[in-house]
C-alpha cells in the first residue's frame, strides 16, 4: 500500500504551526510562537495575522524538510478551519487551500477543539500508543474553551457541558494580569503556585446547574478581595504572590474537577482525558492523579508539547478524516465561533 503523507496546518490564534505525518505517525512538528503580544498582556488579533503571514511559508518549509519529504509526496493537507481568530485562521486556511489546489491533492478541514482532544492519538514511530478507548470523557481546557466532552468516536463529540462566560485559561490569564505578571499568565501562575499555600485564601465558586462552567464570578471575587486587601497593605500582591497564585489555581482546579467528577459518575465512563493549554497545569494534572487513585479512573494526560496549540493534533485528526475520505471543497469558509 502507498504511504499516506498528511501536512497539518494550525493558525487559529498566536502560534503558526505545521506538521507532517506518515501513515498516522508524526515525522515533524514545527511551531513559531509570537512574542509580539507579550508587551500588550494579551493576543492582539491584527498583529497575530501579520505574524502568521510572515511565518507560514518558512514553518511549512521547515516541517517538510525535517520530515525529509518533498511537497509532491503529500497525500492531503489538513488545516484548522475554526474556531479561532478570523484574521489568524484566514492565513492558514488560504495557504492550505492554495497549496492543496496547486498540488492537486485533497483538503481536509479540522475543528480546532477536536484537534486538541485527538492530540491523545499523536504518536511517533517506535512509540507505544497510549490513547483512550472510545467512548471516553475529555476535559478540554484552553484559553478560549472549557468543555466536558463525551467522545463517542473520533468524529462524534458530544458536548456535555461548557463555560457560559470565560474559559478557565482566560480567567487565569486575567488574574495574572491583575497581579502584574506577564502574558500568558497560566505558566507563571503554575510556577508560583508550586511554592504557595493553596488554602491561604478562599474565592467565590459558581453555582451553575448541570455540567456547565462559569469563571467570571471567581475572577471578580479575586479582583474585589485583592482591592480590599490592598487598602490595608498596598504591597499585598508582592508580599503574598505565591499564596495568591496557589489559592486561585486551586479554586479553578476545584471548579473544573467538581463537574468532571459528576460527569464521569453519571455516564459511568471511567476513561478520562484532559486536553488544551491548561492541561499543562501541574495542579490540574495532580488533581487527575488523585482522581485516578480515589475513583479508579483510567487517566490520559498529554505530553506537554501537545497541550498548547500545535499542528501535530491537526495532522492526526486530518489523517483519521483522510481514511474516511472526508474531504472539503475549496469554497468552505473559515469560522470564528463554534455553535453549540
Ligand atoms: O490551547 P491553548 O494553547 O490555546 C487556545 O486554544 O486557547 O491554551 C492557552 C491557554 C492560556 O490561557 C495559557 O495561560 C494556558 O493555556 N496555560 C496554562 C499553562 N500553560 C498554558 N494555564 C495554567 N497552567 C499552565 N501551566
Q: Which radius of gyration do the C-alpha atoms yield? A: 20 Å
- Note the total helix count: 10
Number of separate strands: 11
Beta-strand percent range: 15-25%
Helix content: 40-55%
CATH superfamily of the largest domain: ATPase, nucleotide binding domain
Question: Please, how many domains?
Answer: 2
CATH architecture of the largest domain: 2-Layer Sandwich
Largest β-sheet summary: 6 strands, mixed
CATH class of the largest domain: Alpha Beta
What is the H/E string?
EEEHEHEHEEEEHHHHHEHEH
Bound molecules: 5'-O-[(R)-(carboxyoxy)(hydroxy)phosphoryl]adenosine
Shape: globular
Could you give the distance between the termini?
Answer: 39 Å
Overall average residue pLDDT: 96
Short description:
With 340 residues, the protein is α/β, with parallel strands linked by helices. Helices cover 42% and strands 19% of the residues. It is built from ten helices and eleven strands.
Fold and architecture overview:
The chain is 42% helix and 19% strand. With 340 residues, the protein is α/β, with parallel strands linked by helices. The chain has two domains: 141 residues, Nucleotidyltransferase, domain 5 (2-Layer Sandwich), CATH 3.30.420.40; 167 residues, ATPase, nucleotide binding domain (Nucleotidyltransferase, domain 5, 2-Layer Sandwich). A six-stranded mixed beta sheet has the order 5-4-1-2-3-6, with helices on both faces. A five-stranded mixed beta sheet has the order 9-8-7-10-11, sandwiched between helices. The longest helix has 27 residues. It starts with a strand and ends in a 17-residue tail after the last helix. The mean pLDDT is 96.
Amino acid at each position: 500500500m502507498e504511504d499516506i503523507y498528511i501536512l497539518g496546518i494550525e493558525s487559529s490564534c498566536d502560534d503558526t504551526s505545521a506538521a507532517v505525518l506518515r501513515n498516522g505517525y508524526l515525522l515533524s512538528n514545527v511551531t513559531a510562537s509570537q512574542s509580539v503580544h507579550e508587551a500588550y498582556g494579551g493576543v492582539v488579533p491584527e498583529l497575530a495575522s501579520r505574524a502568521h503571514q510572515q511565518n507560514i511559508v518558512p514553518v511549512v518549509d521547515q516541517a517538510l524538510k525535517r520530515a525529509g519529504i518533498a511537497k509532491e509526496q503529500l497525500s492531503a493537507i489538513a488545516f484548522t478551519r475554526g474556531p479561532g481568530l478570523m484574521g489568524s485562521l484566514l492565513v492558514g486556511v488560504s495557504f492550505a487551500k492554495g497549496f492543496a489546489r496547486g498540488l492537486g491533492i485533497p483538503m481536509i478541514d479540522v475543528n480546532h477543539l477536536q484537534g486538541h482532544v485527538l492530540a491523545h492519538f499523536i504518536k511517533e514511530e517506535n512509540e507505544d500508543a497510549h490513547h483512550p478507548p472510545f467512548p471516553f470523557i475529555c476535559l478540554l481546557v484552553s484559553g478560549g474553551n472549557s468543555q466536558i466532552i463525551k467522545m463517542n468516536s473520533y468524529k462524534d463529540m458530544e458536548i456535555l457541558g461548557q463555560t457560559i462566560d470565560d474559559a478557565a485559561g482566560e480567567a487565569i490569564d486575567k488574574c495574572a494580569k491583575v497581579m502584574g505578571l506577564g502574558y500568558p499568565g497560566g505558566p507563571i501562575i503554575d510556577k508560583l503556585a508550586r511554592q504557595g499555600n493553596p488554602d491561604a485564601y478562599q474565592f467565590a465558586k459558581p453555582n451553575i446547574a448541570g455540567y456547565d462552567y462559569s469563571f467570571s464570578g471567581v475572577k471578580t471575587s479575586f479582583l474585589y478581595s485583592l482591592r480590599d486587601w490592598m487598602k490595608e497593605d498596598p504591597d499585598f500582591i508582592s508580599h503574598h504572590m505565591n499564596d495568591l497564585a496557589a489559592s486561585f489555581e486551586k479554586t479553578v482546579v476545584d471548579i473544573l474537577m467538581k463537574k468532571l467528577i459528576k460527569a464521569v459518575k453519571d455516564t459511568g465512563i471511567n476513561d478520562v482525558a484532559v486536553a488544551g493549554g491548561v492541561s499543562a497545569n501541574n495542579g490540574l494534572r495532580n488533581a487527575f492523579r488523585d482522581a485516578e487513585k480515589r475513583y479508579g479512573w483510567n487517566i490520559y494526560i498529554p505530553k506537554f508539547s501537545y497541550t498548547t496549540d500545535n499542528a501535530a493534533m491537526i495532522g492526526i485528526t486530518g489523517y483519521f478524516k483522510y481514511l474516511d475520505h472526508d474531504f472539503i471543497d475549496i469554497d468552505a469558509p473559515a469560522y470564528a465561533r463554534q455553535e453549540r
